[in-house]
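In response to a reviewer's request, we include the raw inputs and outputs for one of the modeled complexes. The two entities were modeled together in a single run.
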Amino acid sequence: MPERLGPARETPLFECVALIGIGLIGSSIARAARHLNLAHQIVAIDASDAVVARVRELGIADEATTDVAAGVRDADLVILCVPVGVCGRVAEAMKPGLKPGCIVSDVGSVKASVVAQVQPHLPAGVHFVPAHPVAGTEHSGPDAGFSTLFHNRWCILTPPEDAADEAVERVRAFWAAMGSNVEVMSAQHHDLVLAITSHVPHLIAYNIVGTAADLETVTQSEVIKFSAGGFRDFTRIAASDPTMWRDIFLHNKDAVLEMLGRLNEDIALLARAIRWGEGDKLHDLFTRTRAIRRGIISLGQETPEPDFGRRRESQ
Amino acid sequence: MPERLGPARETPLFECVALIGIGLIGSSIARAARHLNLAHQIVAIDASDAVVARVRELGIADEATTDVAAGVRDADLVILCVPVGVCGRVAEAMKPGLKPGCIVSDVGSVKASVVAQVQPHLPAGVHFVPAHPVAGTEHSGPDAGFSTLFHNRWCILTPPEDAADEAVERVRAFWAAMGSNVEVMSAQHHDLVLAITSHVPHLIAYNIVGTAADLETVTQSEVIKFSAGGFRDFTRIAASDPTMWRDIFLHNKDAVLEMLGRLNEDIALLARAIRWGEGDKLHDLFTRTRAIRRGIISLGQETPEPDFGRRRESQ
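The model returned the following structure tokens for the whole complex.
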């Protein structure tokens, strides 16, 4: 339902936008930018010849190339849409092509590491405004994207303290135009918030599914058969892209380990309450967690889909 | 859509069925048994005068009473539909009323503890066939039940080794008639299987929501705001009934602590892999967990609703 995006702009926000990495996110930005007239020209850059060929077939960009430096040459906004682990290498490759005044951004689920990887490669006069659209689906590749992916989702910007206000505002306007609610915070704070709201939940889900698969007393077919009792929803996120998630954990190590440590302390308390039959402690916690649930419902962030932040269907 | 239940039987399976505890499960059994003509007479027993009055208003039983011993007097099937923690007390109360040859069953999410609590109170000549329908919703009380709750859900029977075959077959037929897929296993094995497929996932969900609520570096409103990144689905099960879940953890202590221990060992390995940057180990696990996910999808146990075994709407 592209009509949810609202009408196209009469004048584009940017002259030329270059997208590096045309997977789900990159191709969704291309489609939305085209649909909303956010850029006069859209350049798609990808390391894979096959992806570049497919982008040409789909016609979702004005130009498509595997040459990073050449691809970013005319861009006044460059967005890295690659796994967090390769941001540094990509930044190095694009460095010779960046034009003065250009804004560089990204879409990574981790921010401090991206800043540390990318910043050293940016020439003076190039602005850096890291971004994280909290959106996605289970699917990947240039065919998976759709123009409304970011509609009504949060996009977090983590500009460095010395970032030019105008550059931040232009990136904010870009995401707001695609329907996102834009929030600004520090990269460090972003990484803490996402560690508890996204990264650790994913880690736990992967882990519980792995533990279940290794049991010798319970067969895998029993786990599958009786998964409706709660386990099933854990498997859903445990089917997410392994490479993307590996990079997230490796690059948000400190915050993930800190949150995991706290979680383990709390689990130890719960286990102790169970072992010693302290029903009141359990009841208190189970009652308290309802308040957060109510908060989510009242903020309209509850949806019937168990998408863990990923859209299941285009809309 | 009661038509999914199939036609009513010409002759009932039981002369008189007594249900003790008329909440979601008890009232759903009453409705299904009535609809399918599984019993000539349905007696509803509840400790609460208000519930008994409501059952009379709803007309979902032929008789409703707070007197346990009197209520079970004519029953050839008695089903305990009370929290796992009070099964022993209820069994003691019904003991004087049970007639010879009667079958006693239950619906608890834990089985070994229920057997230990109930068995001592059963006179010789009374059969005991514990059962666990893996079904439910977030709602409770006699108004919450519906006749198709058990349709296409698993029901696990855990008869003692010396149980009379005929009694087991009659309970199996009762649940099969309500649309359930019936499986038989030992009470001990049931408690292990459910610990990993249901109890520990719920415990983890309660725990992660509790941990998030206690953070001093991330505000509760941030947790709520960015919950779509994965956290949201944990809050859903963390809103389940506190009393029911307290009893489950206290009464499946050994299996829950064993599974939690294994989970913690595996989390420790994962944390170590993250700390030391062992990306291959992470990638291997994340790839392996996809197989279980595929198994769930191919077994048709995947649904679009994140219901954690609970139906969200009657159907």
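As requested, we also summarize the result in words. The longest helix of chain A spans residues 187-214. Chain A touches chain B through 100 residues (CB under 8 Å).
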